[in-house]
Amino acid sequence: MRYRFGTLQQSLFAYYSAVFIIFSLIVAGLLYAFLASDIRNRSEEQQRQLGVSIVGNLDQEVVKMNNFSMNIVYSNLVKEHFSHYLAPAEGNEQALSNDPTLYKDTTTLIDVILAIISSSNTAKQANIYDVNGKMLGAGAFNGQRSVNLKERPWYQETWERSGWRVIRLLEGGALPMPTGEGKSDQPYISLTRVYKDGNYVSQGVVEILQSATDLFQHLNELQASNEDLRIYVMDERNTLLYPLTSAKSGSRMDHSEVMDVIVHRAFPSETMQEVTDPLMKSKQMMTYMTSQETGWTVVVMQSKQSLFANLNRLALMFIGATLATLMLILILSYLISKRVTLPLHRLQRIIQKTGENDLVTNPDSGQLLFKLEHPGSIREMDELNDTFIRLNQQLVQSFQDRLAMKSQETEARLLALQSQMNPHFLYNNITNISIMAEEGMNEQIVAFCANIASMLRYISTPGKNGVPLSQELDYCERYLECMKIRFEDDLHYEFHIPEEMKYIQVPMLMVQPLLENAMKYGLGDTPPWKLNITGELDAVQQTWQIHVEDNGPGMEPEALAKIMHYIEQSQEWERMPDLEINGMGLKNIWVRLKLWYGTAAHMQITNKPSGGVQITIGGSIRKEHD
To answer: Residues 6 or more apart from 409 whose CB is under 8 A from it?
Structure first.
């Protein structure tokens, strides 16, 4: 249902406000979407670059360890002295002190390894193992030991990979003492690979140890500078390398639930996605990337609230700016609408003060003026003012002519409607005579024609001022006598009209069409058919009513609703409605009632509960005479 505004000012205010508000919201929405997308892209790129930086830093540290191991593996000097070092029999732990040559080879190996460590600072410890478990260490521990090589955590994988590096996270307690410096809780990153001689025969294992704290120092610094930043590092086996579970940061943190979220990631790498942190139960933005150098996966997680803090501030700024803009738009729309409609309000007040009596009796009515407060400020208002003055003068000149023509027009409409009814009557009765002639009803035709002759004299009499109700009822009785001749005992009718009603003036041919309508549509069932015509007179209200009832099947609901809708919607017509002969009876009667009685006209059609239709017409009491 369309809403209708009460005033022009309300309409203009609503339309101006709607246009400006929609335009402002579209612009603000597009601008916010662009800035928000830019901030999101920047945040995603920032997190991705942070992950790339971390991966690069770790790759650099691991590459140093790898190069260190390669320098040992491919060093000719190491190969030469290592072969001599392997010469003593297994378990001869006194060989080093008893054999000066072996002692020299051992110390030379240690010096070479220490020189590499000191030049690059890439590792805390370097160990060389032969196949029998003899270990030579350099770095934090310098010397040799005998160990069970097969018990080392990396042994099986290192030996299977036959020269490829193997990287593991080891606790200090898992290292041969004193290689681990006696700190069982100190984690180390171990890089191991098989050591081969010049003939590519496996001779042992080279192990490079670097403190995990030193390796991940850059990550610790990043997290220390940003409390909302969390970094995780996993190897190819999804073993958590960082954060270090032994780090002294208070109570030990359980990262198993976080690991489940990370391991079961279902989105592409280097793409930021929103996840729920199972530890903090908060929204986190996560990006992961895998190093091509080490195979490690680095996961960067940041609080969504902190990462998009700028976006939240931007949203608040936009909300505030939008509300302020909307308030300004409403104020401007009100001022504009008021400025446009103010002259119209003044003109409206002048027009409301001008009535029919003023146009007819006021000698100065043609001089009504409408002055704008600021002449020329709105050209259309000046033109409207001039048009109103000219229209007012024309109304004064034509009003008297209109009053003179109004009564003549009403009489012409009544005569035209009555002329529509006359051929309608003749058409129906000639049809009845034709039917009776076909059935050989000669005597009845004679009586029928006598009644028709009397009826024709009645309807040929001019009746622009109406006729007494008694004449209209006499016309109706002759019509029913004709129908009685036609239908004999199948038709019964009764008149119950108060005597005092017979002198009131009514429009000609007002009741008979109701009887004809009942004969045509209301007497379709099995005879006998009954018609009752009753009248009511209200001396106090000075009104009358006539009821025509039949015992037929009643009117179809659709047809009844249609005619009642026509009656309810009819007002003062600019011209007489176009009516056809077929089916025009009820509408014709209602039109003539409206033209004759105006607002006092009454017509009601109802289906009776017991069967049949009751049609009621009425109006005010008029006492005009021809």
So the answer is: none
